[in-house]
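Before a colleague's protein record goes any further, I have to sign it off. I want your independent view on whether this chain really folds as the tokens say. The record follows directly below this note.
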Amino acid sequence: MTTAYPITHHEYDVVVVGAGGAGLRAVVGLAQAGLRTACLTKVFPTRSHTVAAQGGISAALGNMGQDDWRWHVYDTVKGSDWLGDQDAIQYMCREAIPAVIELEHWGVPFSRTPAGKIYQRPFGGMTTHYGEGTAQRTCAAADRTGHAMLHAMYQQSLKARGEFFVEFFALDLLMDADGACKGVLAWDLSTGRLHRFRAQMVILATGGYGRAFFSCTGAHTQTGDGNGMVLRAGLPLQDMEFVQFHPTGIYGSGCLITEGARGEGGYLTNARGERFMERYAPNRKDLASRDVVSRSMTIEIREGRGVGPEKDHIHLHLEHLGPEVLHQRLPGISETAKIFAGVDVTREPIPVLPTVHYNMGGIPALFTGEAVTLKDGNPDTVVPGLMAVGEAACVSVHGANRLGSNSLLDLVVFGRAAAQRCAEIIKPGAPHRAIPDDREQKCLQRLDRLRHGKGTLSTARIRADMQKTMQAHAAVFRTQKSMDEGLVKLKNIIESFGDVAVRDRSMIWNSDLVETLELDNLLGQALVTLASAANRKESRGAHAHEDHPDRDDAHWMKHTLAWRTDAGHVKMDYRPVHEYTLDGEMEYIKPRKRTY
């Protein structure tokens, strides 16, 4: 097989897969620490999906009112519906302040207050005094914050001399017989050649898998390739049942309208013109957490109060804010609404609908970035040579539901933490152990089988079947019957993947093969998502189980672990939630009823 696919060999201290916010922040820290670093990315770095993040990055700077990182911790724990690990949450919220100041020093063009400080806007679930007031905690560069951050971090990566392999598609992890990661096999789309990257550490920063669903705010590249590689390596994914629906995707297209629109004073109405969020979240109203707002909108539509001819969506009002505020604070979404909804936001509301936006689940990891698994009874067994950061990882700081503006924070804090941990444990230039040939052969056989797929079903057809099944059976509200039916359908779809047809046999810019490999990754993640959802018999955060409407801390205060077996089934187990803090600077926040 190796004669059919000549392989170019590389050796690095660290290989980072993915060049979004988490990957780039890791690259900067690694290169600055003197570690020889390669970054593999299937799209040009500044096209990574972090570029689409709009609303901002959270940090208790206190520029626009009193704030404290402990209040940020409380809001994040509550937002996670107590499934978040409080040691990791403490680390993230405390490190948020220096992380944002560092970004400012790197040249991120944050919007400013009249005094020249970083502008901060309110966001859903962000409060002061442990839920009493409204926090202005989300640092914003208008509504293009992710764009500004990504470009600044790419510039810093180049300055630090990180090495980039652009438009390289990572195929599989190269694991040894002891379960340690020794590198990654990748495909150079521009030349068609394969490349073996041997490394002392592989950091997966490959983002989420929103494209497993039919309606999604994410780019078409958002296929969770790192998660797919982890499943094939025989490792588990964690908390995959928790999929966030953003309340305000544009009706029809799914394009995102930032939560910052409501942070600036926007509000939702039903067909009667009622501001219905007052019924569901009387204190926080339109700035309740995303899962609460999405469910509230869905209930309004279900009960016949949706707007439009089909009564199937909701209105988001910004027109009362005035053209000046919209131009200054929300220029990007004003343009998006015009293009994708035909709406002039200064005069009329935007039609919106909850849309798949973020995956709380992913590769189980510690706050140091190190990937972990359950082995020999130890739920925090570190997988040697493997780390995960960003949306690909499940640290778990977001638990059952992520608060808006905590994702950009997650990227920079844990990208930095992973680099710091690598600097502690890796000796630059240390010799590499050989990668077992059988593992590499298995990767090549999979590639060759898909490349020469002679079936009758197109990749697009199978992908559409998967996306519609996930949209229907892993939705905002779920029932046991629907999830069980969805699992049967999904297993049939996965079986049909054996009949996939790939028409283009070339290795250079073969988009047909790329999409087929991405679909293979998505199918595995879809399977463990639906299986994990069907397994969890409670409602918590984004997982709203109508047959079990209450949170059940006695039985389900635990992280789900899901392995995909060789037989195509899902094996389930659990990790305990970290019910302890990092140090004495804060106390453990005990579970309580979650209301807004």
Summary: The chain has 16 helices and 24 strands. The radius of gyration is 23 Å. The chain has a mean pLDDT of 96. The CA atoms of residues 1 and 445 lie 7 Å apart.
